[in-house]
């Protein structure tokens, strides 16, 4: 019995090592954040416009052509880092980018857009974060590719980079536009 008690911690450490080794060798990306909404329609939402803007954003605004939905906030440092990439997609590449301004003060969001540029076709104010919760947003920024039928086809948590856009977003948008 004493021998068994002596071996028990050793067996637990060995089991833990096998489990961790299995995870490391599985090839699974530990930073991947899967979305249950891929290939499903956008959840219904309607968000009012920021003050001074003519249009808010609603789930019914998507469809007919591939579009991006970007979730951002003025207080979000990574949002500022990705903003030139979003601006290039919207202004230079002609991709329709609609946005949800997440848990932000309207005056702060408007000042941020004035200072950094406004590449968005429409922006809805999600003051309580309800629409973002329904979309499964983990944090800002987060970007979704929406197909011609209004279904979520791709989700990228975190800031977009030129590499991600070139490797994942542009090819998907080209495929969806066919």
UniProtKB/TrEMBL annotation:
Its main location: other. InterPro entries: Periplasmic_diS_OxRdtase_DsbE, Redoxin, Thioredoxin-like_sf, Thioredoxin_CS, Thioredoxin_domain, Thioredoxin_ResA/DsbE_sf. Residues 36-174 form the Thioredoxin domain. It is found in: Cell envelope. It holds the Pfam family Redoxin. SUPFAM superfamilies: Thioredoxin-like. Keywords: Cytochrome c-type biogenesis, Disulfide bond, Redox-active center. PANTHER family: THIOL:DISULFIDE INTERCHANGE PROTEIN DSBE. NCBIfam families: dsbE. Belongs to the thioredoxin family. DsbE subfamily. This is Cytochrome c biogenesis protein CcmG/thiol:disulfide interchange protein DsbE. It comes from Inquilinus ginsengisoli.
């Amino acid at each position: 019995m004493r021998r068994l008690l002596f071996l028990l911690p050793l067996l637990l450490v060995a089991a833990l090592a096998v489990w961790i080794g299995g995870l490391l060798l599985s090839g699974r990306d530990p930073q991947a954040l899967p979305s249950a909404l891929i290939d499903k329609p956008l959840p219904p939402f309607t968000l009012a416009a920021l003050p001074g803007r003519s249009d808010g954003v609603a789930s019914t605004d998507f469809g007919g052509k591939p579009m991006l939905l970007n979730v951002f906030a003025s207080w979000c440092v990574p949002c500022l880092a990705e903003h030139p990439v979003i601006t290039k997609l919207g202004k230079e590449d002609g991709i329709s980018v609609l946005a949800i301004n997440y848990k932000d003060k309207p005056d702060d969001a408007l000042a941020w857009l004035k200072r950094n540029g406004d590449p968005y076709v429409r922006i809805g104010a999600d003051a309580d974060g309800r629409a973002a919760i329904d979309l499964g947003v983990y944090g800002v920024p987060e970007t979704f590719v929406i197909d011609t039928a209004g279904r979520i086809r791709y989700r990228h948590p975190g800031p977009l980079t030129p590499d991600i856009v070139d490797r994942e977003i542009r090819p998907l948008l080209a495929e969806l536009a066919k």
